[in-house]
Amino acid sequence: MLAALRAAALPRGVSPLLVGSREVWRGAGWRPSDGPVRDPGVSARVPKPGRPDAEGGRLSAAAFEECLRLGVRGLVGAVVTAPSSKEMWAACGYPWKDHTERLSALAGGEVEMILGAPSRRLWCVLATRHIPLKDAPRAASVGAVADAARALDAALRRLNSTAPRLALCGLNPHAGENGLIGREEIELAAAVRSARGEGVTLDGPIPADSAWRLHAEGVYDGLVCLYHDQALIPLKVLGGLSGVNWTVGLPFARTSPAHGTAWDAARGGVIDASGTIEAARLAARLLLAV
Fold first, then answer.
1. Which residue range(s) make up the domain with 147?
2. Least buried of 6, 55, 106, 182, by fewest C-beta within 10 Å?
3. Are residue 125 and residue 26 in the same domain, yes or no?
4. Same domain assignment for residues 177 and 220
5. Which CATH number does the domain housing residue 143 bear?
6. What is the CATH number of the domain that holds 71?
7. Which residues, other chains included, contact 156 with Cβ-Cβ below 8 Å and sequence gap of 6+?
8. By three-state DSSP, how is residue 232 classified?
């Protein structure tokens, strides 16, 4: 976070508020010129960098909850979250599995998770998220896919993309070969018809490998992906660590780097702030567009 601020990720007119334990921020090298710190006031031992434990999970969860309170009260217009450890959140007794589950509860229903590498103009949305792969075909229902397509269309329009062209990735190899390698694509064609009926330009389902190639070449403005790794593997190969997570459906903008906690890198002091820089830039862009 500090590296992103010092890289001038925020444009003039956007002021940062750093949320979390003052001890954690000081340990990371915080200086008053980086911006004010809002401490949630949770008593917990500060863990060593790259050493996960329940105390660190407690501090992380408390900072996240404080950010949500600020956002709901309208005291901040955008929230940029750091990666969290699901294991450490569970270890400290935090009742939510991940950011998106908590944000869905806050919004009173499902929120959509838009993933992208803004500097590469790569964007996708997940019809299913953190569930076992064996459950993804059932969860990727016609309704879930159509909702995801509408959310991605609206998100890209917010970024000034006029009539974005989207593609739906198939679940099976070769998008099922017209039922020869699975019938899911035949059933999901109803989601394409539903989205098109609401003015969303959505093609497919088409083979996922072809969809990503065409997206990278600029044929499509974004992709609707059916499960986690169908989106994250290509996005991280093409965008590196600059990927971001943008949650839509909230009363405030929320972004985050798309990578995880990287404990080994933290232990070695190896920092690549590109994801946080991109997340901060996108949050500021959304904030200024309101």
1. 114-243
2. 6
3. no
4. yes
5. 3.40.718.10
6. 3.40.50
7. 123, 164, 221, 222
8. helix
3-state secondary structure of 48: coil
Bridge partners (DSSP) of residue 125 are: 114, 224
pTM of the model: 0.87
Instruction: Read off the pLDDT band of 2 (50, 70, 90).
Output: confident
Q: Tell me how far apart the alpha carbons of residues 186 and 171 are, in angstroms, rounded to a whole number.
A: 11
Q: Cβ distance 34 to 17 under 8 Å?
A: no
> What percent of the chain is predicted at pLDDT more than 90?
71
Task: Specify which residues 165 forms β-bridges with.
Answer: 201
Same-domain status, 166 and 196: yes
User: Could you read off the pLDDT of 52-110 as tens digits, one per residue?
Assistant: 889 999 999 999 999 999 999 999 999 999 989 899 999 999 999 999 899 999 999 87
Cα–Cα distance for residue pair 68/254, rounded to 1 Å = 10
Residue 149's region, left for phi above 0, alpha for psi from -120 to 50, else beta, is: alpha
Position 228 pLDDT exceeds 70: yes
Residue 83, burial from CB neighbour count under 10 angstroms (0-12, 13-18, 19+)? middle
Sheet holding 165-169, edge to edge: 78-80, 253-257, 244-248, 112-117, 122-126, 222-225, 165-169, 201-206
Does 71 lie in the same domain as 183?
Answer: no
pLDDT at 232 over 80: yes
Percent residues over pLDDT 70 in the chain:
100
